[in-house]
Design goal:
The protein has a domain of 66 residues. The protein is 32% helix and 27% strand. The protein contains seven helices and ten strands. Strand 4 and strand 5 form a beta hairpin.
Length: 228
């Protein structure tokens, strides 16, 4: 599903080595945490998968495609296959919950009939059918993140990338979001999540790839161990 072979990333202006000799294989349907302190390389790793950055050396294969060879004009089409969830939700404030989710389908030119069928199903999955016509500022933080997750899955991605999705949420709400992501993963969608929340990682007991100084220092199933 996802393979990084000999990946290094150096930022040209600062000559800072953000990632060094990264070799990772993530199978289809896995749930993987990327953990590490600030500056460990988590954000760089995620941006490489999203093709927001290019590696300085190495290859990155996603769904059997070497994404380092994707031409710039084809990047939007590559990203259509991905679901992305951010810490700050990034909902459109002038659109309702329904419209925010529908918009993700509209930009890939999905028919109106399919949108009308799919959006209610996504809302039901995330437990927000009763909030369809609310605007983002009428929702709690947890509800907004559920909308963001519904938007991320609406086009049936094979991979969801989550960048600190519980960072702005209280512990109880965070657990609800993680259970939702766990349910989505159980249906076969691969989930990669960058986080610094040790409690969440310990609770989930999934595969944990720990980064330190741009290098992999641990790759195992279980909690966020202190030595990581």
């Amino acid at each position: 599903m996802i393979k990084l072979n000999g990946v290094c990333k150096t930022y040209d202006k600062t000559e800072h080595l953000a990632l060094s000799d990264i070799d990772i294989c993530i199978s289809k349907g896995e749930f993987v945490f990327i953990v590490g302190k600030s500056g460990a390389g988590k954000s760089t790793f995620m941006k490489l998968i999203l093709k927001e950055l290019e590696p300085s050396t190495g290859e990155i294969h996603v769904d059997d495609q070497d994404i380092t060879k994707i031409k710039r004009r084809h990047i939007p089409f590559y990203r259509r296959k991905l679901g992305i969830v951010f810490q700050d939700f990034r909902l459109l404030s002038d659109k309702t919950v329904y419209e925010n989710i529908a918009f993700a389908m509209e930009i890939v030119e999905t028919s109106t009939a399919v949108i009308k069928e799919s959006v209610p199903n996504a809302l039901k999955l995330v437990g927000l059918s009763h909030r369809a016509h609310y605007f983002p500022d009428q929702l709690s933080g947890g509800e907004q993140q559920r909308v963001a997750i519904a938007r991320a899955i609406i086009n049936n991605p094979y991979l969801i990338i989550c960048d600190e999705p519980t960072g702005n949420l209280d512990p109880k709400t965070s657990i609800g979001i993680m259970n939702l992501l766990k349910d989505i993963n159980a249906k076969g969608t691969t989930v990669i999540m960058a986080t610094h929340d040790k409690d969440i990682v310990d609770l989930m007991q999934m595969r944990v790839i720990a980064l330190h100084g741009g290098k992999i220092v641990s790759d195992k199933k279980g909690g966020y161990h202190s030595e990581d």
